[in-house]
Write a structure and sequence with these properties.
CATH superfamily of the largest domain: Type I PLP-dependent aspartate aminotransferase-like (Major domain)
Number of strands: 14
Strand content: 5-15%
Number of domains: 2
Structural class: alpha/beta
Distance between the termini: 76 Å
Strand order of the largest sheet: 2-8-7-6-5-3-4
Largest sheet: 7 strands, mixed
Radius of gyration: 29 Å
Number of helices: 19
Length: about 525
């Protein structure tokens, strides 16, 4: 044993242990005198090592111990390619030279981030609800104030900061029901069947959660379109349900064929219990708009096979092609007669995030659920009550979507002008995108009938496919990574949405301003031609 600071043999043990404790606490060790220096004994060093070893014990939560269903979740829209885009943005900010000056994030339908202007009336009402003192300001129109007062009267303490009922503010659910009746030509809607949600995604996840049950071959199967919006495959993975794919027909503008539904259903019955059928109309990522006959066929199929229908209708305002029209599943179901209308269980979804509004950040949405068993209705409300309530500002925003200015009101002219400007612009960009893609060798793009994305099919040479395999990437992921690294354009590979074996696609939003979109499409064209030359 060495000498302690005081000079006596063995006398340093207390001081050494004091030093160990100080180090463990994150402080520098001190002896009894300011000018003294601690000389560590081998025993003290061993104690310090022991403390450090205990401090770095194994983590409780690891990739091996975490919930395997969460680990199985994939969400391509914000997947590896978007992370790579973020890294490139950081490098650009540091002054690292690239063949481009900015990253264009065409991977997601985030309208305002792409430069779309908010709808004035919607923002005025939400501003009034958020800061009620503005109700005395002459800068705001009376029709906006009237709506804000009505919403605030439905809030506890007349404040947007209070919790609401789990199903949402009652007067807003009444407005949603009135909107549905107007949209569907008088088909009745009951506010009690309306549930306000945190975007449409929250409602879809809640309904799936309550539908999924069983084990082994009786585990619930959920039929989803391929290509699909990755929310569905992610929710199915998280809930440990069985994904049942049915393929849209790319050769017929991504049409839905009931014979394909029947094939998928019959094959799935061998390994699960298919009881949910999901429809996205207008389509995401494919942009098709289903005609009336197709919807009737789907409803008849669901009725015949006793399937619970989920109708994702968040793009119902985004219809561009001549001869195309949005028909809600609820309306067609009602018009098919009482045998269908009184029996087919249907959940329909809408949102503030898309359409002409593009208010993604408010996370406003609703679902209408009809023909639900009364006892299940109680279970659904119980499930929703766990998250207390949807964001109240989002509920207010949803109210303006379903209760906009009407002819004769002060804000009507400006509202209609802004709404039509957004939708006409999107229609122009949909046609521009389709035309420009179809002029590129090795690229084929179906008409963008609706929604806000293109999903072109791309030819990838076998040499590029081999290189992708060497990098352990799907071929279209390899293509999209190269596109990002060489042009700064971020799109999502088709493999993230699902596609037929041997085909390759990517999804790109049409939201950038027209001039920027033209530049983006020209860059894609130049890249694709060089890519074909390189890997020919």
């Amino acid at each position: 044993c060495g000498r302690g600071p005081g000079g006596s043999r063995g006398g340093g043990s207390d001081t050494a242990l004091l030093g160990v404790a100080s180090v463990a606490a994150g402080r520098q060790p001190r002896g009894p005198r300011r000018d003294s220096t601690v000389r560590w004994s081998s025993a003290a060093k061993a104690s310090a090592v022991n403390i450090n070893e205990k401090a770095s014990r194994e983590k409780i939560l690891t990739l091996e111990s975490m919930n395997p269903q969460v680990k199985a979740v994939e969400y391509a829209v914000r997947g590896p390619i978007v992370l790579k885009a973020g890294e490139i943005e950081k490098e650009l900010r540091k002054g690292i030279k690239k063949p481009f000056t900015e990253v264009i994030k065409a991977n997601i339908g985030d309208a305002h981030a792409m430069g779309q202007r908010p709808i004035t009336f919607l923002r005025q009402v939400v501003a009034l609800c958020t800061y009620p003192n503005l109700l005395d300001s002459p800068s705001f129109p009376e029709d906006a104030k009237k709506r804000a007062r009505r919403i605030l009267q439905g809030c506890g303490g007349n404040s947007l900061g209070s919790y609401t009922a789990s199903q949402g503010i009652n007067c807003i659910r009444e407005d949603v029901a009135s909107y549905i009746e107007r949209r569907d030509g008088g088909v009745p809607a009951d506010p009690d069947n309306i549930y306000l949600t945190t975007g449409a995604s929250d409602g879809i996840s809640a309904i799936l959660k309550i539908l999924i049950s069983g084990g082994g071959k009786s585990r619930t199967g959920v039929m989803i379109p391929i290509p699909q919006y990755p929310l569905y495959s992610a929710a199915i993975s998280e809930l440990d349900a069985i994904q049942v794919n049915y393929y849209l027909d790319e050769e017929k503008c991504w049409a839905l064929d009931v014979n394909e539904l029947r094939r998928a259903l019959n094959e799935a019955k061998a390994y699960c219990n298919p009881k949910v059928l999901c429809i996205i109309n207008p389509g995401n990522p494919t942009g098709q708009v289903q005609n009336r006959k197709c919807i009737e066929d789907v409803i008849h199929f669901a009725w015949e096979e006793k399937l619970f229908l989920l109708a994702d209708e968040v793009y119902q305002d985004n219809v561009y092609s001549e001869g195309c029209q949005f028909h809600s599943f609820k309306k067609i179901l009602y018009e098919m007669g009482p045998e269908y209308y009184n029996n087919v269980e249907l959940a329909s979804f809408h949102s503030t995030s898309k359409g002409y509004m593009g208010e993604c950040g408010y996370r406003g949405g609703y679902m209408e659920v009809i023909n639900l068993h009364p006892e299940i209705k109680g279970q659904l409300v119980k499930l929703l009550s766990v998250r207390l309530c949807p964001p109240v500002s989002g509920q207010a925003a949803m109210d303006i979507v379903v209760n906009p200015p009407v002819p004769g009101e002060e804000s009507y002219a400006q509202f209609i002008k802004e709404k039509e400007s957004v939708l006409n612009n999107l229609a122009k960009k949909a046609k521009l995108t389709e035309d420009m893609f179809n002029k590129i060798p090795g690229v084929q793009c179906n008409p963008l009938q609706g929604a806000m994305y293109a999903f072109p099919r791309i030819f990838i040479p076998s040499k590029a496919i081999e290189e992708a395999k060497a990098h352990k990437m799907a071929p279209d992921m390899f293509y999209c990574m190269k596109l990002l690294e060489e042009t700064g354009i971020c799109v999502v590979p088709g493999s993230g949405f699902g596609q037929r074996e041997g085909t390759h696609h990517f999804r790109m939003t049409i939201l950038p301003p027209v001039e920027k979109l033209k530049i983006l499409l020209e860059k894609v064209k130049d890249f694709h031609i060089k890519f074909l030359e390189k890997y020919a």
